[in-house]
Amino acid sequence: MSHPIVVVGAGLSGLYASWLLQQSGHRVWLIEARDRIGGRVLSQAPSDAAHRLDLGPSWFWPGMNPRIEKLVKQLGLGSFPQHSRGAAIVEGQDGKIHKYQSSWEQSPSSYRIAGGTQSLVEAIRAQLDDSVHIQLQTQVRSMKLRPHAVELTLQDPNGEWTQLAAQVIVTVPPRLLAQDMALEPAWPDALRQDMRSTPTWMAGQAKFVATYPKAFWREAGLSGDGMSHRGPMSEIHDASDATGQVAALFGFVGASPSYRAGIGQQALQRQAIAQLVRLFGPEAAQPLWSAVQDWAQEPLTAAKDDLRPLSYHPMYEAAPVPAAWSQRLWLAGTEQSPNYGGYLEGALEAAEIAVSHLQRSLQEGALKRAPLTHEME
Ligand SMILES: Cc1cc2nc3c(=O)[nH]c(=O)nc-3n(C[C@H](O)[C@H](O)[C@H](O)COP(=O)(O)OP(=O)(O)OC[C@H]3O[C@@H](n4cnc5c(N)ncnc54)[C@H](O)[C@@H]3O)c2cc1C
After folding, report:
1. pLDDT tens digits for 81-106?
2. Does ligand 1 lie within 6 Å of residue 169's CB atom?
3. Is the C-beta atom of 40 inside 6 A of ligand 1?
4. What torsion do the CA atoms of 334, 337, 339, 343 make, to the nearest 10 degrees?
5. Residue 207 Cβ contacting ligand 1 at under 6 Å
6. Which pLDDT does position 46 carry in this prediction?
7. How far is the CA of 177 from the centre of ligand 1 (A)?
8. CA–CA separation, 84 and 41 (whole Å)
9. In this structure, are residues 57 and 40 in contact, taking their beta carbons and an 8 Å threshold?
10. How many angstroms does the Cα of residue 172 sit away from the middle of ligand 1?
């Protein structure tokens, strides 16, 4: 039997690429280093709640994210606008609290997926049939170009082994690819340097979420939106579900990765709750459940260079694969997306581009191999 196509990384991009390949009749191995699918997509729930809270991405923008919008409909997922009605709060460096009545609606509106963004990756996984084999807890360590295949060295809990692939789509962020994977023949230094200087979007970030018996801030005329120059969270929003059954707030932790690592997650949670009390009042002191997800401490998301916080959204560009590899390996993952780099939409766009290039290369290869009619006569 011929070797499968291997897709490296079961985040949104890898899952979507596998689904597209399956739809074109290919046999796929989807290899994921973590013990779960989703990558940067992660939604968690307190054990008794159906509604999950997003510790990774939470928003998409209908009208601006055509692929996500289409998938949400096609896969029968619910979506709802981010709650933003009511006054916003700004906490100054001096600790003073200012309330701002917002007279405008956010445009375009951010939307959330019912059940958390993880519902999207789970719905894609549910579309995969036996032609896609998902291999979790398996890290790709190296890739070697062989005459008719790529040889991957894989590490799973039982040790190291090799797998041949007819073609490979790599969805791992470029910095991790350059930092962690040995390639033979080696990629040019300049290309590896470019990949190392391509930030992994949001990899240096951390999120804090807390659930409450009711959305007391809404009752006080507050939207749940907050900005703070004091921290540890720099930006806070309402994270309640669409039905109002689960009331929640979340915040991006503006404090640096080194500060977060220094104080530890428990102290960080205490500081975040104290901040919510300053901003929203004493009822914020007793969350039913809270959690921190520090992406900078996830070596399968953040490379060493991602520990320096980003203050801007980079312009992403697809990295060129060296000529020797060009008929065997394609890069996907959101950082390869020309139009939506960094976003969920970019993970889908990059997967689509990689799969269509791979298909074209297979068709061209088949044409070259097929004898011309007059040669057969
Ligand atoms: C806190 C946070 C908030 C965000 N908010 C938003 C938002 O609101 N809206 C939005 O559009 N986007 C947002 N994003 C960005 C969004 O999460 C990403 O664009 C998207 O999830 C990237 O998907 P991906 O598949 O390209 O990469 P990843 O999800 O990073 O997938 C790569 C996969 O490769 C695996 N892997 C790594 N190395 C190896 C290896 N050697 N071998 C095998 N597997 C490997 C990883 O475990 C991972 O599963 C946010 C991200 C974060 C962290």
Report:
1. 999 999 999 999 999 999 998 655 56
2. no
3. yes
4. 0
5. yes
6. 81
7. 14
8. 23
9. yes
10. 8
Q: Is 143 in the pocket of ligand 1 (CB under 6 A)?
A: no
pLDDT at 376: 43
116 residue type, one letter? G
Q: Separation of 373 CA from ligand 1 center, angstroms?
A: 48
Cβ neighbours of residue 305 under 8 Å, at least 6 residues apart? 175, 179, 196, 197, 199
Instruction: Name the residue with the closest Cα to ligand 1, atom 6.
Output: 57
pLDDT tens digits for range 324-366? 999 999 999 999 999 999 999 999 999 999 999 999 999 988 7
- Angle 8-330-197 from CA coordinates, rounded to 5°: 85
222-228 vs 87-91, strand pairing mode: parallel
Give the integer Cα–Cα distance in Å for 369 and 359.
15
Instruction: In whole angstroms, give the CA distance from residue 166 to residue 234.
Output: 47
**Positions in the chain short of pLDDT 70:** 1, 48-50, 102-108, 370-377
DSSP per residue, 233-249: EEEEEE---TTSSSEEE
Number of H helices, E strands in the chain: 10, 20
List, in order, residues 6 or more apart from 366 with CB less than 8 Å away: none
Q: Does 293 sit in the ligand 1 pocket, CB within 6 Å?
A: no
- pTM over 0.70? The answer is yes
Is the CB of 354 inside a 6 Å radius of any atom of ligand 1? no
3-state SS assignment for residue 341: coil
CB 226 within 8 A of CB 89: yes
The response to whether residue 39 sits with its C-beta less than 6 Å from ligand 1 reads yes
Please state, in angstroms and rounded to a whole number, the distance separating the CA atoms of residues 78 and 64. 18
In order of their start, the domains of the chain are: 1-41+117-202+312-377 (3.50.50.60), 48-53+82-114+204-297 (3.90.660.10)
The token duo for 357 is 């290039």
Distance from the CA of 55 to the center of ligand 1, in angstroms? 12
- Ligand 1 neighbourhood includes 205 CB (under 6 angstroms): yes
Pocket test for ligand 1, best of 36, 40, 336 (most atoms within 8 A of CB): 40
